[in-house]
Amino acid sequence: MRSQLRTTLIAYAFLLPALVLMGVYTFWPMAFGTYLGFARYNVITPPQWVGLDNFRELAGETDFWTGLSNSLRYVLVVPIIQLAAIGAAVLVNRRLPGIALFRAAYYVPVVTSFAVVGIMWGWMYDQYGPVNWVLRGLGLLDRPVNFLNRPAVALYAVMFVTLWKGFGYYMVLYLAGLQSIDRTYEEAALIDGAGRWTVFWRITLPLLRPVILLCSLLSTISAIKVFEEIFVMTGGGPAGSTYTAMYYIYSKAFQDFRYGEAAAASLVLAVVSLLFSLLNFRYVRGGQVA
Amino acid sequence: MRGDGPAAQGRAGAAAAAMGAARATTRASLVARGMRHAEALLVYVVLVAVAITTIYPFVWTVVTSFESTGAVFQFPPPLWPRQPTLRNYRTVVETVPLLRYLLNSVVITAGGVLGSLVVAALAGYPLAKLRFAGRNLVFGAIVATLILPNEAGLIVNYITTIKLGLLHTGAGQYAAVVLPSLASTVGIFLMRQAYLAVPDELLEAARVDGATELGIWWRIMVPLAAPSVAAFAILQFVAFWNSFLWPIIVLTDKSYYPLASGLLDLQGQFATNTRAIASGTVIAMVPILAVFVAGQRFFMRGLEGAVKQ
């Protein structure tokens, strides 16, 4: 008995730093953040319970709705980035000379800060910049466009940067998934006369399903919370066309110091991302092949 | 000899058939090999096209940072500076405290990586190898942080940082940046996973020999988990080196900015001097790319390890 108590004490001694830090910076924010959503707070005086007032105010704010709808539109990047990542993983999974170089090249944007990436793409998208040069050379554009200054395209231009920076990350995860698949399934199907495309579609992809679920969950959650690339590239503009929910939360909290309203918006966004996670679970689980 | 006729014929026929078959196989395999070559070529074309897309913005930035004169945007965009110069680097280092930012980044990254390694390496041990009251509860709570959305984290952590008095205290500002990301759930999982692979007999033997739990952890568990430690260290290096949003929110004194945050500030100040900003951008990305090139294998493995729980 005494040694059992001793073990428990030792165990918690090992866990102490992690539990204290998580308590302060993870669990407390979840609890206090939820409470703040129903309170008025300015840091100096104690928070004051105001019920649903913050949410009512949110509902009346155009900025909030603009942000929320842009955040939802941003989810469009999820299927595209996942397809790109799966495609890249299949390509770099081959044993070809120099393949490690390509893997590295696709991963370089992943390890680069959004501060750097955002600034670089500002130049790429400039109306005299390389993207215009390429698109005009291909005959896809007849006059120069500053992509980040056009309300109609700015959000999609930022989305492309998210795709560009992020697909290498998911590619590595899919690569791990592909390499953990037992080769015998695919080989057996090939011997039975199945084409390579059929094998990919009927065997590889279904076996990859757990990784697809994980990756699409991760990318949905970060799409709904998109902020850093917007902060660096457009600042929510032009004309609010890239203003997302997280941008709203940021400016409410850190520019207007209206913590209660910002927390309320955070709660709404948390519920939305939870809903999308559940949807993801159903959708990706749904088509399960027996 | 009569008897030989059919047999010989048969033999000849078989040989001919075999030769024909062989020829057919060769042709089929030639076609197959040709198709394989064509396919490999196609794969390379796609691979190269994507690689150009991912690498080109970096090339453009580096070239621009070394350009001395002329318009910033040229057609076609240059692949090499016409008259390479270090002038832009001098301009940016002289006007912006980039070296100070670099030092801040080093302090923040070193503290963050070391701290989060220690926290995760400690926490993973009891979760993998000790039986204690509340283990499932603790583990469940840690897992929950992965699933529960915490969008309000930014706001509350900011308030907490103010209340802890970390905002105006010199070195406290480094702590303000590092502390919220020190306890990494992914890190705890990675370490726990690595410890689970260590056989219990090894620990029992050490206990019989009178080793303390801390001694077992430090002398047996941590060394045996070295590959996971390295992988997690690199993942954390990237995370801490690249962070800029939280530092901008929490640091009132810009002289504590890490490079990435300083870079954004630079962009605001120098909106028109593209070449100076490009030089600052190169300075900010060289260290992380160097670490990436050196630790590429661990990066990929670390990421894979983080998924396979």
TrEMBL record, chain A:
Residues 68-280 form the ABC transmembrane type-1 domain. The keyword Ion transport does not apply. The keyword Iron does not apply. It is found in: Cell membrane. It holds the Pfam family BPD_transp_1. CDD domains: TM_PBP2 (cd06261). Keywords: Cell membrane, Membrane, Transmembrane, Transmembrane helix, Transport. PROSITE patterns: ABC_TM1. The chain crosses the membrane at residues 9-28, 72-92, 104-124, 153-178, 199-224, 230-250, 262-284. It is a multi-pass membrane protein. It comes from the Bacteria. Its main location: membrane. InterPro entries: ABC_transporter_permease (IPR051393), MetI-like (IPR000515), MetI-like_sf (IPR035906). PANTHER family: ABC TRANSPORTER PERMEASE PROTEIN (PTHR30193), LACTOSE TRANSPORT SYSTEM PERMEASE PROTEIN LACF (PTHR30193:SF44). Belongs to the binding-protein-dependent transport system permease family. This is Sugar ABC transporter permease. It comes from Carboxydichorda subterranea.
TrEMBL record, chain B:
Keywords: Cell membrane, Membrane, Transmembrane, Transmembrane helix, Transport. The keyword Transport applies. Pfam families: BPD_transp_1. It is a multi-pass membrane protein. Residues 102-295 form the ABC transmembrane type-1 domain. The keyword Transport applies. Gene3D superfamilies: MetI-like. InterPro entries: MetI-like (IPR000515), MetI-like_sf (IPR035906). The chain crosses the membrane at residues 41-63, 101-125, 137-159, 171-191, 229-249, 276-295. It is found in: Cell membrane. Belongs to the binding-protein-dependent transport system permease family. This is Carbohydrate ABC transporter permease.
